[in-house]
Amino acid sequence: MTPITVRRWAWIHKWSSLVCTVFMLLLCLTGLPLIYHHEIDHLLGNGIEAPQMPHATPKADLDTVIAAGKALYPGKMMMYMSQEADEPNIWNLTLGDNPTDEGYKSIAVDARTAKVLAQPSFEGSFIGVMFHLHVDLYAGLWGKLFLGLMGLLLVIAIISGVVLYAPFMRKLDFGEVRRERGPRVKWLDLHNLLGIVTLTWALVVGATGMINTWADLLLKYWQFTEMAEMIAPYKGQSPPAVLGSMQKSLANVVAAEPGMKIGFVAFPGTPFASPHHYGVFMRGDTALTSRLYKPVLIDAQTTAITDRRALPWYLTVLLISQPLHFGDYGGGWMQLLWALLDVATIIVLGSGLYLWLKRGVNAKPAGAAQ
């Protein structure tokens, strides 16, 4: 096989970078506030905190919590209920007109008093806008897949940039910036320096971002394979007319999965359950395992566990990639590191665009002189 020449690597780096740069700039700019989305929500007055109570305050019956939410929208049905890992005293309820309603209502309920705390609105908020621009460009699955393609081009640009870095720096000291050679050469050296310094981070974030764009497809594959096996015994049966107690259902799950906590619950008919089941997704209590879910299916009429199993490897990879992408698993110092590296990557992308535009401007007088 003929080895790829430096000229060919330069062509690959140039065009993979040019095609994805504008979109990568958008993703870096929108990703920066998403690193601090909890803090920004609180700053803008959108954060929700449970009232201070004694630590031993008992939790309210879950059926009472659900009733408090449904009382606000009696015509709607429960879709999901969840708890944030760092806020166990709040249940977040999602209600809609049908199991896949995109115009759902969100309600935060105190887990101890069953009182409604707020009705947060994610859509239209600053963080909501940043999220959609970062995740799908407001274009749904096709937007995600397009951004995934841009992520692939970023990975190619990084790899080709590494290949080109060694011959480019052969006659220069590492990190040398030739300020005396004019602004374009100075920015070229800064572009190369910051690019090689942020190499590992950009590669990790680019690769994990690309994996995250496949989430919908991976979930659908899981639903058509393993989830279909889990609910196969109920095929052809009519959905239950009356749902069983959520308090009893979750008590059965907690007893069966000691050492794990409830992540979220999907109600019958939603994509994460079946017409006959509650889908209870349990998670661990460490920084890593809190991101990994284990699905447990509960008969929605009898509240008995019907099946439970670990997620397949491809969904485990997806779930692990998410905290790596946003750097939200290591506390404030990790967030700061991710933010600084994000800013450095913005400079790399911006300087690359500047160098290309400047090269075109410089080429015109040279061509005219000939």
From TrEMBL:
Q: What transmembrane ranges does the database entry give?
A: 12-36, 145-169, 190-211, 336-357
Which of UniProt's keywords are assigned here?
Membrane, Transmembrane, Transmembrane helix
What protein name is recorded for this chain?
Answer: PepSY domain-containing protein
Q: Which domain of life is it from?
A: Bacteria
InterPro entries, alphabetized: PepSY-ass_TM
Is Magnesium found in the keyword set?
A: no
